[in-house]
Amino acid sequence: MPYEMELIQFLLEYSKEQIAEYIEDVHPADILDAIHQYEGNRLELLNKLPDAIIASIIDYAEDEEKYELLTMFSDAKQKEIVDEMSSDELVDLLGSIDEEEKNSIIVKMKKEDADEVKELLTYLPDTAGGIMATEFISIKETMSVGETLKYMQMEAPDAETAYYIYVLDEVECLKGVVSLRDIVVNNFDEKIAEIMNEKVISVPSDMDQEEVGRIFEKYGFLTVPVVDYNHKMLGIVTVDDIMEILSNEHTEDLYRLAGLQEGEKVAGTVGESVKSRLPWLFVNLLTAILAATTVSLFESTISRVVALATFMPIVAGMGGNAGTQTLTLIVRGIALGEFNYENSKKVLLKEIGVGLSNGIAIGLAVATIGYLWEGKPVFGLVIGLAMFLNLIVATIAGFVVPVTLKKLRIDPALASAVFVTTVTDILGFFFFLGLATVLIGYLV
Amino acid sequence: MPYEMELIQFLLEYSKEQIAEYIEDVHPADILDAIHQYEGNRLELLNKLPDAIIASIIDYAEDEEKYELLTMFSDAKQKEIVDEMSSDELVDLLGSIDEEEKNSIIVKMKKEDADEVKELLTYLPDTAGGIMATEFISIKETMSVGETLKYMQMEAPDAETAYYIYVLDEVECLKGVVSLRDIVVNNFDEKIAEIMNEKVISVPSDMDQEEVGRIFEKYGFLTVPVVDYNHKMLGIVTVDDIMEILSNEHTEDLYRLAGLQEGEKVAGTVGESVKSRLPWLFVNLLTAILAATTVSLFESTISRVVALATFMPIVAGMGGNAGTQTLTLIVRGIALGEFNYENSKKVLLKEIGVGLSNGIAIGLAVATIGYLWEGKPVFGLVIGLAMFLNLIVATIAGFVVPVTLKKLRIDPALASAVFVTTVTDILGFFFFLGLATVLIGYLV
After folding, report:
1. For a FRET experiment, which of A82, A274, A350, B190 has its CA 20 to 30 Å from that of A322?
2. How far apart are the C-alpha atoms of A89 and A131, rounded to whole Å?
3. CB within 8 Å: B321 and A163
4. ipTM of the complex
5. Residue limits of the CBS domain (chains A, B) (predicted)?
6. Are B173 and B291 found together in one domain?
7. Residue B287 sits in the same domain as residue B196
8. Are residues A241 and A281 in the same domain?
9. Residue A18 falls inside a structural domain
């Protein structure tokens, strides 16, 4: 990537002053990429950057890398950098390290910042409070547009986002919001009270971050204010943080459905991947043994009609697939907020309907194949009926497993194909081999 | 939901003028929700709203609902509403309807808007050009901050976003960007050329929307400018559109892996779900028949050692799971841009390493179980070795299937568990039953 090489060259060759002037225009995410590419002494490169830029670079680094980057610097320099970081960035950094490391950073903060960060750390990390920043711009409704503009010229540089300005009353309760656009298009002597939007949508500090994400998606917000139960304004959540959170939640859903652990990277090491996957494979082994046990109960039937073994993969494969279809739909529906208590009964009935319809279609097809393959109508009946029953079981299991987990406050994606497939394997084999045992007289 | 009821009451009871004054502060997404809840005459409710609000409501509706909403109104009113819609909203609307309906809307636009929209429709819908809006604010670098502010007071109300102002040269090439925040915190006589950021990151109009999404995620942008190959600025993409696109892409990935079709809703009808899922179940039936055929080749072996049938679900289940793990990691790695040509060889080698390691662990475990279950060491050897080989095949298949599809420019998620499972089923049964056939003398 030539741009990163160019950046490295520039950082190496120019003086600290020249860099300070030019580097403001370069996006910190690109500087971070360049540093990742550089194989020489990274500290030398980093030391040529202004503190505020280093703080932004740390913000764009992955959570695990933040502490490593910061502690490359001398204690004095760390203090300067920490001073430039916003409260939510500091909380992200501190959330990824242990107690001792945490304290070593907190002592480097100004007392005021340390107190703020300590308070933010009391919120659960996955809630609005845990992801908010406290650097927002607030004004009083009695101010004019001109006064607000002047106030912003002082405050904007430190704020997390300057595009929304919050109007608070004497006890810091949220009364309204004006956008910077409103400020720009209105007359200087207009009062804020006249132009502010009083119907401001806010979120409580204990709202789950995924639900906060849904609010951003619904309204197309750039920022949302966070309030406590007295409607006192505590902070703001910004859309860039939400995008990262939603992306991580999506990865988590996909991974959990497949039995991978959070944090496994496509470009990781063999050891990391084995650690992520082997536990799930052992869980799957236990459930597969249950399915095997079911089959073993019917060994004498299979020994008399060995064609039953041939059709076993069809029973298991189709049931597993139909179950995974329903499971995926329910897990995604929960994540998007489209599935809830109000429509759960309707959805269950629909899924049973789908199981019935697909069961009839696939059951008839498989019955025909079985009849043609073995030349015995009863063989077709046995495999067709087993398939029909298994597809109904599959849709019910695909519904019940994630919904039950959700009720138990466990992530429904953890239902993962493994568990649903266990149900369809065991019951599928039971229907198929059980029916064959009952009708064995017609099969041999 | 009491808020929506309140809104409906308000719309029913108050006059058009009173509503116009108050409704500005209500978010269009909430008005849309209220309209969905209302069971009376919706047109009556909608007709009380100002045209600009109706245009925003249509923007927040699902693509399929937009046309339906717009065509509720009289032709004259439709003209007014269309006039208030921004170019990307019109393109979204026109993209979801047929040619005839499309023309019926285009004739209602002003010639200038119609030309613009027709040009936007020439871009592929899934590219930066297909999702951009042309309503951005542009200035010249010779302007001062004060002049820019004045210019904005005229232009901002129509712009899609006013938080970034683009600096263009005489031939409309993108030279730089200033944020509204820069405008607010600088002196009125400062020249734009002095404060603009010249290192502005832009995307070409033919960039895939998923890649545009990754750029938003990497940089935390609110807006990105779209340019042609001469660097002429064409439009902007905003973060709210990107969030919707990313959410849809995530749903698509999850659905395709599970064999569901785009557009299936958790709260949809039985008919829609059957239409979405049955084709995939039939694909799966075909692949399951291939697995069954493999088993049928070994029927005589199974008839001699019927315990082989008991262990078949373990072979198939474990292989399918291990394959799905790799598949999911690769599909997500491609979506996140973390997997590419440069690291593909390294990732393949890692996956083979993971297959070897997990294969040894699971192979030993299954060999022990097989030995204890059947009391024959060779039985343990056969199932253990088959499992070891199948787990290596599983990781390779989980890698090769999506990577091949990507090379063929087919969505790698379409690889779906179905295909990878077919490979692991067929080869797993082949290893297991084949080894048993070779060593049959030690098993009976």
Report:
1. A274
2. 9
3. no
4. 0.85
5. 132-194, 196-252
6. no
7. no
8. no
9. yes
Residue A286 identity: L
Give SS3 for A235: strand
A184:B183 CB<8 A: yes
β-pairing, A223-227 vs A203-204, is parallel
Nearest to B196 by CA among B212, B176, B215: B176
CB spacing of A324 vs B259 below 8 angstroms: yes
Note whether B274 contacts A418, CB cutoff 8 Å.
Answer: no
- If asked whether residues B145 and B226 sit together in one domain, one would say yes
Asked if residue A146 is part of any domain, the answer here is yes
Instruction: Say if residue B283 is in the same domain as residue B230.
Output: no
Q: The tokens 């207009």 sit on which residue?
A: A190
Give the count of beta carbons closer than 10 Å to the beta carbon of residue A301. Answer: 22
- Residue B267: CA atoms inside 13 Å, Cβ hemisphere, count? 12
Side chain identity, residue A123: Y
Give the amino acid at A90. L
For residue B346, give the nearest of A267, A285, A346 by CB distance.
A267
Using a CB-CB cut-off of 8 Å, the residues of chain A touching B163 are: 163, 180-181, 222
- In terms of Cβ atoms closer than 10 Å to its own Cβ (0-12, 13-18, 19+), residue B312 is buried
Question: What is the number of domains present in chain B?
Answer: 3
Instruction: Using the 3D structure, point to which of A122, A155, A179 is the last residue of a domain.
Output: A122
Tokens linked to A342: 């109000």
| A-to-B residue pairs, Cβ atoms closer than 8 angstroms | 355
The dihedral built from the CA positions of residue A146, A148, A154 and A157, taken in this order, carries a sign that is negative
Instruction: Read off the tokens for A233.
Output: 């304004």
CA B394 to chain centre: 27
Best A56, A147, A306 member to test B by mutation, with max B CBs in 10 Å, is A306
- A94 lies in the same domain as A178: no
- Check: CB of residue B217 under 8 Å from CB of residue B243: no
**CATH at A387:** 1.10.357.20
Q: What range defines the domain where residue A386 resides?
A: 277-443
Q: A75, A95, A122: which is the final residue of a domain? A: A122
* Residue A78 within any structural domain of the chain: yes
The amino acid occupying position A24 is E
